[in-house]
């Protein structure tokens, strides 16, 4: 039973991992083989092997994660070579028109340019070759990050949008808080009123029970039984 449970959990985990990986990717057209965009390349051997199995790279091909020809996005694909060997001092990219790999001299990189020959399957050890900016490699001196944006202030439309969002968030919370406060006050009011009424009833009951009950025709100490008999 434990074995079956473990197997189900492992299968579910594999399915979710595959789903998340595919969710992060987007299929591209115009290549001679299936190519997907991705936000990042695998970061270690395990991730690389998982991606390779996910994309179903067989013994005649191997997984590759490289930039496109414009250096604007990363691509993942099964390239028709068992082993992709790369010389030191260069990075690779995939061109769309012929679906072939081309090299890029990285000797001018500020840091991270491979200093020895390597395989495409170990690209996670040479992140400078897959770290992109605005149409360039981030390690190039003149390259700017895609996340860098000059400060231009906040427009009136943005302020209106932010205000609307805050109203949508705060208004329901304030309504719930107000209703809760009113309900609590009403509950305390009626509870106090009920307790006060019960206390008054208890006091009335104690007062009526403490009065001495007198007989309707009590004995007269000035009249004895002999006087009553003489009258007759």
TrEMBL record:
<feature type="region of interest" description="Disordered">
    <location>
        <begin position="201"/>
        <end position="224"/>
    </location>
</feature>
<keyword id="KW-1133">Transmembrane helix</keyword>
<keyword id="KW-0732">Signal</keyword>
<keyword id="KW-0472">Membrane</keyword>
<protein>
    <submittedName>
        <fullName>Uncharacterized protein LOC111113056 isoform X2</fullName>
    </submittedName>
</protein>
<feature type="signal peptide">
    <location>
        <begin position="1"/>
        <end position="30"/>
    </location>
</feature>
<keyword id="KW-0812">Transmembrane</keyword>
<feature type="transmembrane region" description="Helical">
    <location>
        <begin position="165"/>
        <end position="190"/>
    </location>
</feature>
């Amino acid at each position: 039973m434990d074995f079956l449970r473990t197997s189900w959990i492992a299968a579910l985990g594999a399915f979710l991992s595959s789903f998340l990986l595919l969710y992060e990717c987007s299929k591209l057209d115009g290549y001679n083989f299936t190519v997907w965009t991705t936000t990042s390349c695998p970061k270690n051997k395990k991730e690389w092997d998982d991606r390779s199995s996910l994309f179903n790279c067989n013994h005649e091909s191997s997984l590759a994660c490289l930039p496109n020809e414009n250096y604007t996005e990363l691509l993942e694909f099964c390239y028709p070579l068992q082993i992709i060997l790369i010389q030191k001092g260069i990075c690779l990219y995939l061109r769309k028109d012929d679906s072939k790999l081309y090299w890029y001299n990285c000797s001018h990189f500020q840091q991270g340019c491979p200093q020895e020959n390597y395989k495409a399957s170990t690209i996670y050890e040479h992140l400078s070759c897959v770290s992109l900016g605005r149409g360039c490699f981030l390690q190039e001196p003149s390259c700017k990050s895609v996340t860098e944006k000059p400060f231009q202030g906040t427009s009136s439309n943005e302020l209106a949008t932010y205000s609307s969002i805050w109203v949508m968030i705060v208004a329901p919370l304030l309504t719930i808080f107000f209703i809760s406060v009113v309900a609590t006050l009403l509950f305390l009011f009626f509870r106090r009123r009920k307790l006060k009424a019960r206390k008054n009833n208890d006091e009335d009951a104690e007062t009526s029970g403490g009065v001495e009950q007198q007989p309707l025709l009590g004995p007269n100490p000035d009249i004895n039984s002999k006087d009553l008999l003489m009258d007759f």
